[in-house]
Amino acid sequence: MPPCPPVSRRLLLGRLASGTGIIGTFLLPGRMDAALAAAASGTAAHGRTATRPPAPLVMLDPGHGGKDPGAVGVSGTYEKHVSLAAALELKRQLEAEGRYRVALTRTRDTFIPLDDRVARAQAHGAALFVSMHADALSDHSVRGASVYTLADSASDAQTAALARRENSADRFGGAGFNTSPEIARILASLVRRETRIGSSQLARSMVGNLDDNLPMLPNPERHAGFVVLKAADIPSVLVEMGFMSNPVDEAELRRPRHRTRIAEAMKRAVDAYFVTAARVAQDDRAKWMSD
Ligand SMILES: [Zn+2]
User: Fold this and answer.
1) HEC secondary structure over 89-152
2) Do the strands 7-15 and 21-28 form a parallel or antiparallel pair, or are they unpaired?
3) Is 4 a member of any domain?
4) How many A from CA of 18 to the centre of ligand 1?
5) Which of 31-45, 102-116, 241-255 has the weakest average pLDDT?
6) Total of domains in the chain
7) pLDDT, mean over the chain
């Protein structure tokens, strides 16, 4: 956040019976001045000039792309194509009712470094960030969807290995990305508490909705040090929609109808997230007013 220097302001404190205003000059901390200005414009907007705030922006992040194919399926399907097709379907569904604005980190088969994906979400002022993938394991019998949030340590060894695979996407970028455990810990600690709470609310909602419609991994809500989830101010989750290494999951992920079902579940999860977020904000406001 840019620094806010103190500002000298003349404020109207009240009026005498004669109508003469009592004015004082104060040196206000910059942030307080900005808050007063926002409050004043809010009061002004309360009347007939009130405008609706813009719909929240959901940033979808189709994994991989360009020279990075992601996981390669048992019959040769590339994860990058499945993730983009699913993200475009989810975009269509989210935009259908006009309740959200939606942007994608990529809309074509192009390579984008992980940090750039986070930066794009921040540049758009995203309210949510949803990264979409399909995993692969040497054990071809494993199938099912799972949902991940950022943490400084992985919930289990399998998730630690997944985070290494997803984070290694940047090796296609040339310089190579190598996060030491120390850096990963610092990055994770930078993520604000409210953002962490939002991320886990969204993850829980994703798991609950996907679980009704799809096979899931055991303990499908997991966490690890994913680079792409490190936006300090945007609740972020990574969804693995299934396994490219499992013949059934791969065949399903290739089918538009199956991707539509995944997107429907994810849209319900996003809807539920915003309903909860609005309720929490309302409770906070009520508490603040009564204090
Ligand atoms: Zn991936």
Assistant:
1) HHHHHHHHCCCCEEEECCCCCCCCCHHHHHHHHHHCCCCEEEEEEEECCCCCCCCCEEEEEECC
2) antiparallel
3) no
4) 71
5) 31-45
6) 1
7) 83
Distance from Cα 14 to the centre of ligand 1, integer Å: 61
Q: How do residues 121-178 score in pLDDT, each as one tens digit? A: 999 999 999 999 999 999 999 999 999 998 878 889 989 999 998 888 777 665 444 5
Distance (Å) from CA 186 to ligand 1 centroid = 23
Q: How far apart are CA 94 and CA 90, in angstroms?
A: 6
Among 243, 198, 235, 236, which residue's Cα sits nearest to residue 216?
A: 243
261, 154 contact by CB (below 8 A): no
Domain at 154, CATH number: 3.40.630.40
CA of 136 to the centre of ligand 1 (A): 9
Q: Which domain holds residue 208?
A: 57-276
**Is 288 contained in some domain?**
no
153 CA distance to ligand 1 centroid (A)? 19
198 lies in some domain: yes
Q: If you ran DSSP here, which 8-state letter would residue 259 be given?
A: H
Q: What is the pTM of this model?
A: 0.76
- Does any domain span residue 212? yes
State the Cα angle at 107 between 121 and 112, rounded to 5°: 60
Distance 271 CA to ligand 1 centre (A): 24
Mean pLDDT value across residues 25-43: 48
